[in-house]
Amino acid sequence: MALIGDLKSFNIVDILQIISKDKKSGILLVEWKDMTVVYYIKEGQVIFARPVDRVFRVYAQRDFDLLIEKLRISKENLFRTVERFLIERLHMKEGVFSFTPGFVKFGSNHYRIVYTMEKIIMMASRTLTPEEVERKISDELLVFEPVEGTQGLVESAELTPQEKKVLSLVNGERSVFDIRRDSGLDNLTVDRSLYGLLAIGAIRRKRKEKKQNPSIALDLLMKIIDRIRGL
Amino acid sequence: MRVVRKIKIVISGPFAAGKTQFINTISEIQTVRTERKVFNPEERGVKEYTTVAMDFGKIRIDEEHELYLFGTPGQSRFDFMWEILGEGALGIIVLVDSTDPTTFHEARKIVNFFQSRFPVPIVIGANKQDLPNAWSPQEVSIALDISEEEGIPVLPVSAVNKESVKQVLLALLEIIRQELTSQG
After folding, report:
1. Which of A8, A18, A228 sits opposite B169 (nearest CB)?
2. C-alpha to C-alpha distance for A71 and A221, rounded to whole angstroms
């Protein structure tokens, strides 16, 4: 099933987060304002990008190795297409995307990846507008905590010194307000960093501790459950 | 005169997520609606009428108890109603239109709103799963940044299907049951 959306309301960080989380493989097609580009994704990594004039051509070629052979692109240089047709476009805000999982048959060969998904997500996060950032960092009382075992992700994201500082301040206790204050950085830099770190999975929202016990007796609750089952 | 005790569950979610339909499908009474014509051109393209105060459905449990389902308005300009309706709720169901990613961020904000004010169980219904371009519950979950540790299940639902609506309600009630039994 294809995932379809508009970059105006669901930006490139958001869609890359979905693809990266489950290490999906498939084709991400973005109809940018000036051109349509197809991105080939293998196990959550963007390995190749190419503009297309007619979309049906994408679906005519399923064998990836055969495709790059036809296009005369060496596996070593695949990353340059990612650089040109994705990295240079991360600041663009208008476009319609569709992600079709599966579909392409990749060879067993390794493809050189210079721009890891985590790195791309962080680069894209640095271009987010205040309005985009506000969609996720919507409340300065939000509290985040680091996710254990994500050191590898963080390393491959190649964080800036500012992002590293923000990450070091995320401890499950400090709110967004506290991190903004304690980092000494401007709010937008902090919020962009949090947005990106959330997207790569290095941090997550801290679960609220339940303080209120359910205000209902167990026998009544069981009666409700039985009643709903019987409807 | 016998006093009937009311138990409340709130159905929330962004504009056009399917809240009114959800209540309609399960309620034993004709849903009480407070709808007005939509004038915002963008919203009007989606539907002609929208809830402005609340929807209200009811399921009779026994002689002394009734389960009330309150549907909130979807637009954040009516968030004062979310606060009013959330008070005293046993649990909250947030519906998301799985075919419309433009509403996902709004859905997350609604979850945040209820989480910060009402520490009661929440489940998310990834609605419109019967439509061809629906995102899967797992994808909706990632898009909403719902981590496993947050304890908010994202369930598939089609609000037009009674069995499907029942499953979401039962999932919420099951979480409440677990919380009650864990208290000893």
Report:
1. A228
2. 64
- Helix H, strand E, coil C: the string for A29-85 is EEEECCCEEEEEEECCEEEEEEEECCHHHHHHCCEHHHHHHHCCCCHHHHHHHHHHH
According to the model, what pLDDT value does residue B79 have?
Answer: 73
Per domain, the residue ranges of chain B are 5-182
Contact A98, A7 (CB under 8 A): no
A129 touches B: beta carbon within 8 Å: no
- pLDDT exceeds 60 at position B52: no
The sign of the dihedral angle between the CA atoms of A89, A90, A93, A98 is positive
Q: Is residue A132 classed as helix, strand or coil in its secondary structure?
A: helix
Q: Take residue A19 and report the two structure tokens written for it.
A: 């693809």
Tell me the pLDDT of chain A (231 aa) as tens digits.
Answer: 688 999 998 999 999 999 998 899 999 999 999 999 999 999 999 999 999 988 888 888 889 999 999 999 988 899 999 999 999 999 999 999 999 999 899 987 788 899 999 999 999 999 999 999 998 898 888 899 999 998 999 999 999 999 999 999 999 999 999 999 999 999 999 999 999 999 999 999 887 766 667 788 999 999 999 999 999
Asked if A3 lies within 8 A of B101 by C-beta distance, the reply is yes
Domain ranges of chain A: 3-115, 121-205
**C-beta atoms surrounding A24 within 10 Å:** 18
Closest CA to B69 of B82, B59, B79: B59
Exposed e or buried b per residue across A57-72, where buried means at least 16 C-beta atoms within 10 angstroms of its C-beta: ebeeeeebeebbeeee
Among the listed residues A187, A207, A89, A189, the one whose alpha carbon sits nearest the alpha carbon of residue A147? A207
Pick B5-182's CATH classification: 3.30.420.10, 3.40.50.300, 3.40.190.10, 1.10.10.10.
3.40.50.300
| Residue A215 to residue B90, Cβ atoms within 8 A | yes
Contact call for A204 and B149, based on CB within 8 A: yes
Residue found under tokens 């009661």: B120
User: Would you state the structure tokens that stand for residue A194, as one six-digit string?
Assistant: 């949090």
